[in-house]
Design goal:
Order of helices and strands: HHHHHHHHHHHHHHH
Radius of gyration: 19 Å
Mean pLDDT: 96
Distance between the termini: 27 Å
Number of helices: 15
């Protein structure tokens, strides 16, 4: 297993290549990552939708959700939350802040494109008809809950989420084989899903999926019947709430969680060795 210092050094080397990556390649990898995370989110909804016990439902969903990050680690992809670890190379003066901004903006947008494509494909696949339209109703319920959080709650939840996600990325880097990387990814991701924390890229599936599900009256009827959702509540499930009320605080929270609570603190632990080596 690689040491903590070796992980940070390896991450910095990877980040140098990332900031110099051509736009098109980065966009494609970002779209792939959005698709992988959305695929895991969609599958976890299927597993959870008919389970009444919240703890059991989130545990089952969390075990499945991690497949998205595994696909990114093993196949390839640029994920916004993981790319918050660009802070390592920035603090080590390997590149400038404008390079970090360019990467994060490109990856965020391409993650959204990939996630939305999956949401649309799932909508047209008819998957949400499962359990007499209950899955479609559950999709609306999940989206509504995520799009109507207060700024403070969404921001704080985003911080907590990316502590676990960046932890999973670094733990996967610590392992030297697939057998070690799988649990390194699964358990931190399971912890954040069970805890109900907010991941901006996962929400790029969950909320647009709910907006699409709202277009089908049978899912709306099932949501009203099974969850007591009202017409007034459904009105708040919209693109404005996704982009402004949800994405802004969750994205900012994810950045603080990954950059400050993981990246900056871990860099400071190894600062002397890293800066001595860079001299």
């Amino acid at each position: 297993m690689n040491s903590s210092l070796e992980i940070v050094k390896g991450n910095i080397n990877t980040e140098i290549k990332r900031v110099n990556m051509p736009f098109l390649k980065m966009f494609i990898l970002g779209a792939m990552a959005g698709m992988f995370i959305a695929g895991g989110a969609a599958a976890s909804n299927v597993a959870m939708h008919s389970l009444a016990n919240v703890g059991i439902a989130r545990t089952v969903g969390g075990l499945i959700f991690g497949v998205g990050l595994m696909m990114i680690v093993f196949i390839g992809g640029e994920l916004f939350t993981g790319d918050c670890l660009l802070i390592f190379g920035l603090m080590n003066r390997k590149y400038r802040i404008w390079s970090v901004i360019r990467v994060l903006m490109t990856v965020w947008f391409s993650n959204f494109v990939g996630a939305f494509v999956v949401a649309a494909l799932v909508f047209f696949s008819g998957q949400w008809d499962y359990s007499s339209d209950l899955l479609g109703a559950f999709t609306i319920k999940v989206a509504l809950g995520k799009s109507t959080m207060s700024f403070g709650a969404a921001f704080s939840s985003g911080i907590m989420c990316n502590i676990f996600v960046c932890g999973a990325v670094l733990m996967a880097a610590a392992a030297k084989d697939v057998a070690g990387k799988i649990p390194a990814i699964v358990f931190p991701i399971l912890a954040f899903v069970v805890s109900g924390y907010e991941h901006c890229v996962a929400n790029m599936y969950y909320i647009p999926a709910g907006i699409l599900a709202k277009l089908d009256q049978k899912y709306v009827d099932a949501a009203m019947e099974n969850y007591g959702i009202t017409s007034e509540q459904l009105d708040s499930l919209c693109w404005k709430n996704f982009f402004v009320d949800s994405s802004i605080p969750v994205t900012l929270g994810n950045m603080v969680g990954g950059m400050l609570f993981v990246g900056v603190l871990l860099y400071l632990v190894h600062r002397r060795e890293l800066e001595k080596e860079g001299e």
